[in-house]
Amino acid sequence: MIEAWSADDVRAAEAALMETLPEGELMARAATGLAEVAAARLQESGGSRVVALVGPGNNGGDALYAAAQLAEHGFAVAVVRAGWPVHEGGLAAAREAGVIVVGPGQDEGEDWRALLGEADLVVDGVLGIGGRPGLPEPAQPWVDAVPDDAYVLAVDLPSGQDPAGVAAVPDAVFADETVTFGVVKPVHLLPATEPAVGRLTVVDIGLDVDAPAAVQRVTRDDVARLWPVPTAGDDKYSRGVLGVVAGGEQYTGAAILCCTAAVCSGVGMVRYVGPPTPTGLVRATVPEAVTGEGRVQAWVVGPGLDAEATGESGERQLDVAARALASDLPVLVDAGGLDLVWGRRMAPTLLTPHAGELARLLTRLTEREVTRDQVQAAPVDHAREAADATGATVLLKGATTLVVPPTSSGLAVRSQNDAPAWLATAGAGDVLAGLAGTLLAAGLDPLDAGSLAALVHGVAADAANPGGPVRALAVAHGIPGTVAALLAR
Ligand SMILES: NC(=O)C1=CN([C@@H]2O[C@H](COP(=O)(O)OP(=O)(O)OC[C@H]3O[C@@H](n4cnc5c(N)ncnc54)[C@H](OP(=O)(O)O)[C@@H]3O)[C@@H](O)[C@H]2O)[C@@H](O)CC1
Ligand SMILES: Nc1ncnc2c1ncn2[C@@H]1O[C@H](COP(=O)(O)OP(=O)(O)O)[C@@H](O)[C@H]1O
Ligand SMILES: [K+]
């Protein structure tokens, strides 16, 4: 599990550690780690010219000390600062090492724009975890002037991005690599900001945070611990029967994809409930599934479901969906099923909207117009709002998939980034529903079921056709081999 801690918890841990160390030792460790990464990247690319953008806080201090070390190693290093006071010790070290300092009252003859234009590597030390979202005004032209072919190495986090990872800031720094210190922070894992982080390198500065993590990411190494592996004492019922209320006369494929994914994920049994056409197709393509109602351990309600279906068979299916939602069994609610969610369920519940579906759900639940763009600009906040309004865990699908439990649970948010962009294809969500539903039926809680399913879904998509297009059915068919490979790690 990768874990990230909030800026406040990191600061408290740093303060405690600093008490035990000589003054300046922690920043020295950070700067040395940063300089080592910068030197390695310059050696890899054959570059020699470095420009460090230096802000008013300790993030700028890290950049200044690293600039000094890089100059001592023989690289051509310049620092660009604005009118703000910068870290004094760092500035003195940089000057001592022969770094050119450009800014008000400094080496006025030098033109920051020309220096930046020639840079092979740009160290972004404008703001760190003390930053508010958004770049300080003098830094915006610097960032805009960074040449496309320069390697942007962010100190701790890409400046101007939200350290909490909540809000997206499109014109802040987008780094090729971020060197962070001690522990990972939410900005590095959450969907609003992770695209700006680039490659993430963690430098050990001896820091340990003794507080609950704010964000977690399930990794391939966690699968063996979490996946429900049957034993000799199991039978199909003890492994978990999943009821699937999916597909209609219009979206028949969703039923097939969801049921296929469930049987490929090792469900004990699938009971499919739907109108005649998808029922016939499920019978023909997923012979393992049984059709019609019966006892189940969990439900999937919604893939391809028409929440306004009329006609006898459609209404019968909606009646089963309503009873599933009213039951005390775990339920995964996806797509059309989300239109049936009104109040709170007490039993374990996993909602799996994409951004548009979450916007629609929140608009309905809060009676305030919520747009897809708003959800994408602040995904954690919107998923949290839906989780708190319904008592459910909300899995928000996207390039990075968030799994957000209600605030009252006190649990960390999960953020999974395992899928190739090829997975953005129709039917992929139906496969995820069958996979996560299987895990609910096996007794996993919604947070583990959702995050583990997102991981396996992404890995299966990549394994199905590495580096190329993949159809949803191939993702489902890839699940058995993917799970076996992950269990064998
Ligand atoms: N603590 C440690 O032991 C270690 C810390 N380390 C390093 O320190 C970094 C944290 O340093 P930090 O706390 O000084 O915060 P940092 O982000 O550099 O700057 C804050 C300054 O910026 C200002 N400001 C903020 N937002 C702004 C905005 N949008 N636009 C304009 N101004 C803005 C803000 O002003 P104010 O809020 O007072 O108005 C304040 O003056 C951390 O990320 C890591 O790199 C490492 O060395 C390891 C050991
Ligand atoms: N850019 C992307 N990169 C990786 N995965 C993505 C991307 N966009 C979407 N996905 C994933 O693809 C799936 C799409 O699901 P969904 O939108 O519900 O499709 P459908 O309803 O057609 O089945 C989700 O699991 C989502 O996380
Ligand atoms: K930074």
TrEMBL record:
Pfam families: Carb_kinase (PF01256), YjeF_N (PF03853). Keywords: ATP-binding, Isomerase, Kinase, Lyase, Metal-binding, Multifunctional enzyme, NAD, NADP, Nucleotide-binding, Potassium, Transferase. The keyword Thylakoid does not apply. Its cofactor is K(+); Mg(2+). Residues 219-486 form the YjeF C-terminal domain. Signal peptide: none annotated. Binds 1 potassium ion per subunit. The keyword Lyase applies. Bifunctional enzyme that catalyzes the epimerization of the S- and R-forms of NAD(P)HX and the dehydration of the S-form of NAD(P)HX at the expense of ADP, which is converted to AMP. This allows the repair of both epimers of NAD(P)HX, a damaged form of NAD(P)H that is a result of enzymatic or heat-dependent hydration. Catalyzes the dehydration of the S-form of NAD(P)HX at the expense of ADP, which is converted to AMP. Together with NAD(P)HX epimerase, which catalyzes the epimerization of the S- and R-forms, the enzyme allows the repair of both epimers of NAD(P)HX, a damaged form of NAD(P)H that is a result of enzymatic or heat-dependent hydration. This is ADP-dependent (S)-NAD(P)H-hydrate dehydratase. It comes from Pedococcus cremeus.
